[in-house]
Amino acid sequence: MPAPVKNEPTTHDAPQSGTVTDETTKATRALAAALARASAEGEGVPREAALGHFRRHLARLQTDVRHEFESHAISGAEAARRLSAMTDGLVATLFDFARGEALRGVEGMRPDLPGLSVIATGGYGRGLLAPFSDIDLLFLTTDAPGAASLAVVEYMLYFLWDLGLKVGHATRSIADCVAESAADTTIRTSMIDARLLAGDAALFDAFIVARNEACRAEGPAGFLAAKQHERSVRHARYGESPFMVEPNIKEGRGGLRDLQTIYWMARYVFGIHRLLDLVGEVPADPLDMTPRAGADAAGTSVGLLTEQEGRHARRAWDFLWTLRFHLHYVAGRAEERLTFDMQPVIGARMGYTRHGRQVGVERFMRHYFLTARDVMRLTHVLEPTIRRAALGAPALTRSADPELEAAGFTLADNQLLPKPGVSFRDTPIAMLRILRCARDRDLALHPLAMHAMIRYERQAAGLRGDAEASAIFLDLLAGTPGHPRTDGARWLSRLNETGLLSRLVQPWSRIVGQMQFDTYHVFTVDEHTIEAVRVLNMLERHEVEDTKAVVGDLVDDLQSRRALYVAVLLHDIAKGRGGDHSELGAEIAQDICPTLGMSAEETETVSWLVLHHLLLSQTAFRRDIDDPKTILDLADTIQSPERLKLLLLLTVVDMKAVSPKVWNAWKATLLRELYVRVAEVLAGGLATTERDARVARAKETAATVLRTEGFDEGEISQFLGLGYGSYWLGFDPETHTRHARMIREAEASSAPFTVETQPLPARDVTEVTVYTHDHAGLFFNIAGALAVAGASIVDARIHTLTNGMALDTFWIQDASGTILDQPHRLAKLSVLIQQTVSGALDPSSEIEHLHHGPRRMRAIGVPPRVLIDNRASNTHTVVEVNGRDRPGLLYDVTHAMSELGVTIASAHITTYGVRAVDVFYIKDVFGLKITSERKLADLRAALLGVLRASEETQAPETPAVSRRRRKTA
Q1: pTM of the entire predicted model
Q2: Which stretches of 864-953 are DSSP H helices?
């Protein structure tokens, strides 16, 4: 049965709310005295005059708290207590004032107004108040509140609203409170920490007695289950992972609400006033977790948390409250989401600065994520022991599986946990064995088992290099191909939550909570890695439809499957260390793999995969895969068909685990084409000497198809003579046929300009083909028109035909990264291209008015960078442009190139969140590589100028600056 829920003011971690500063007490007395003086001067105090007194009092105390907090004299939790104490005095003074003003002149009214109490509930009831949070008040009345009580309640509420305060309120009798609490757990929770602020003390005492009797009669089971369900619903709404890069620090997993939930559970069961009351000597046996003593008025420890766990709880509580206060003050409202624009501002306010190569905001966010993980771990530790203390020990059932019993495990509620007498502290290998048993028998881990694993995770450090531990770990990670319960991500999550993974693979500890301050990665590094393993699990089960065109059945025929899983685990292990994380990660893999019991061959494969895990994606999206040198260079690096398969699978799972928005059919197409071409070279089927033969075959195929389309031999001969070799190798026969039709129709009608749009759902792009007279500036004009139309270019091929005409092809998507196929938008797009190329429309003026994305994204810096490479291609100079993405960026970049006399042969456009990486294959006006150092320097300077101008126009603003500008406007 639950202990009596006491009525004293409560907080998690420190002095009760009644411990107010002398300044607060003096200010409250001064306010009451000022009102008394004003009242003595005449018949009452005019309402506006009274509001003035209260406003000055409120502003003075709020300013004092903010000054002390922002000067780091007090923490967020202490500031919350002071704001609460300040509000206590204000509400109590207002009650006395309202009682006099609302009842002035009413005959027979007693000045003490019996039958009405003003009670603080919810967070305010706990004696904690954030700067812009609601003030939750319960106006407790007798069974039939009189007109006088209702008049005072109405006066107080309107007065508080006029002060600019947000008030959550209810007016109920004791019977109403008991009935509402029984029907609604949220109301019952708010009543747990009820505090008397003013009014009838005897009525409040009666309420406390009735509340406690109702709690005893109800029992703890329903309340605990309801809080668990409420938390599950909240996590589903705000994200199951605590490692989202824009977390909700109050409602998200690992946030303040999760800490409050376990506090409410403990308070309901034990009657404690703070989580630290649970600190004491704890039993070593996870099955012996009954509290040593119930918490009483003297604060006797119940022994559910160790001293170290208590320190983690205190630090998490202080950190989250301090973070919340900064967030409210910077936003100027009750903001609980830590968005990108807030992160650097608040990180700086909390003192996080650059450390080595890691910027302050990333250090700050890592501290937040580690704190969120501590809150999760505290939940795993406390909740099962609270439930056991409240509901009794779980009923152990003897398993019919003798091997399970022999291994030291048993079942309770059909969940797996250690047998009595089996201690993870003394036998740490049992922590891995129980996970393997849970997987093999498809059983859930009992919460008490998770509790024990978290408590004794440090013991797992002694298992590094242990043969059995390594074998179990690799088995949990990779499982058995085709086995229905192979789910490495599930077990990695367990190992990560409990802390075991950082003990078994020591470098893992450095990526836990590690984030990259960009909009491309939506998870921390550790969570991204686990998600990548989950995607690989799904690929093996053939559950990922949008990757089947890329990986096909490659996943079913792997000779180095275990090496692939370990490579996925380690591919980002060196993130955040500075330098090239691929190179550093490859070195780490060389050290880790042997300790996991992997062979020299497996170790070498894992290290190679980690070193080159970005190779395919960078080549597919940033290089011209129709250039023979690109393919040959790639084949020289990969060398083995098996490595090519492994690298493709690693690339796919890495991309899909970054963000749901990263993967699309166009990228899948490029990766598949790249894989096929490299595989042909590795199989000895292609070489650059066969280029002419490939061109000839492409022409023969085109001629055959055109004959079936009704083209005569003269038309076929004319079309075959138009394209150079790169054209014939760059398109498939179906596209050649479409081009032939378009060119024939244009020539027949003497049309100077033709635009054709072709949605390609299988590739998730729309192909836009422009056939017109070639001239300088054609590319950037088309790029400008597409930007005005709201299209995003993902790839482009520029071909000048032998008749002097340009045949330019663009593959586009809409702003959300999906196919653009609405007929009205395609028609508008065609018109815009014609108007721009003809000079009737200036895209630069239109682009200025386009939406540049959410303001909060401006906080993320994108340093401009231009790389020029004359070795990547035998025939072209390759220019890579890195900068902040925005509408019209490609137009400005290509315009700058055109003004320097540069001819663009192909463009490859990739975006990573707010960062754009555009790669161009270019030549000079004579059709040659650009080798002049002066010309290259001018080109680099011009492009950097465009990128810097773009960054300046999108310069980040602090939220405070943005607000000031709005107010000025």
Answers
A1: 0.82
A2: 889-899, 933-953
